[in-house]
Amino acid sequence: MSKNLRVHKPYVIYEEKDHKFVWLGLDESEFEKGILTNQYLIVDGDQGALLDPGGYFVFERVFQNVSEFVKPENIKYILFSHQDPDVIGSLNLWMDMAPNATIYVSALWERFLPHLGVDVKGRIVVIPDEGTSIKLGNSEIRAIPAHFIHSPGNFHYYDVKSKVYFSGDLGAAAFPEGKWYLIVQNFEEHVKYMEGFHRRYLAHKKALDHLIGIMEKLDIEVIAPQHGAIFEGENVKKFINWLKSLDKVGVDYLWS
């Protein structure tokens, strides 16, 4: 790790026996590389599943922090929510450093991955539009269809054992310079960092309402987004209720 980087260490969101859900840290240099991204690791026994491992510039930090919890050769899955470069930009590195990992991605994006200069033949599972169930050790991860939130082929991932819901770009917050926190404490104050993204980057209110219906049927204790801060406890309900309150998003907002 470069000596000039200051690193926030991983934070274990959930741990019971041999099952963990881990936030994989943040290096402060990322303030110079666009919107901050969150990466997560699910561990069950000696196996790991990596969620949206991020772009090229975060690879060193993510790899180092993953290695504290699971051997790279025991990363069983790399699970992608969608196709953006801040999600998949490090894939060529992970293909080498996690040689036994299977890649999960929407069927819409499979044919785009070779453009990253990586051969994914034999190592990719395409997720059908309706989602799928993924077995990790003695646990289950569900790929939840979240299409048009904001990608047309998009999935969230629900860890059944920990009850943590990885929401991809849903819940994204853009902090102003010098402002950052990992866990939302004051939800009402946090809204101002989320609103702009949700108004523009979600495609349509109908898509959002459909996903909310799915989320409300799940037993969710934590919502962990790819950008911004994590929602716990009562803030999970507050966040879902806030999503319901959005009258216009995407095309509704632009061309109502």
Describe the model.
- This protein has 256 residues and is α/β, with parallel strands linked by helices.
- The chain has a single domain, classed as Ribonuclease Z/Hydroxyacylglutathione hydrolase-like (Metallo-beta-lactamase, Chain A, 4-Layer Sandwich).
- It is built from seven helices and 15 strands.
- The chain has helices spanning 59-66, 85-88, 91-97, 187-201, 205-215, 234-245, 251-255; strands at 7-8, 11-16, 19-23, 26-27, 40-44, 47-51, 75-79, 102-106, 124-127, 132-136, 139-145, 155-159, 164-166, 222-224, 231-232.
- The strands form three sheets. The chain has a seven-stranded mixed β-sheet, with no helix packed on it.
- It is globular.
- It starts with 6 loop residues before the first strand and ends with a helix.
- The model has no long low-confidence stretch (mean pLDDT 92).
Question: Keyphrases for this structure?
Answer:
256 residues; alpha/beta; six-stranded mixed sheet; 25% strand
CATH topology: Metallo-beta-lactamase, Chain A
Biggest pleated sheet: 7 strands, mixed
- CATH superfamily descriptor: Ribonuclease Z/Hydroxyacylglutathione hydrolase-like
How many distinct domains?
1
- The class by helix and strand makeup works out as alpha/beta
Low-pLDDT residue intervals, each spanning 5 or more residues: none
Helical segment tally? 7
Number of strands: 15
Strand order across the largest sheet: 2-3-5-6-7-8-9
Give the ordered list of helices and strands: EEEEEEHEHHEEEEEEHHEEHH
Query: Per DSSP, what share of the residues sits in E-state strands of 2 or more residues?
Result: 25-35%
Rg over CA atoms? 17 Å
Protein name: MBL fold metallo-hydrolase
Keywords: Hydrolase
Pfam families: ODP (PF19583)
GO molecular function: hydrolase activity
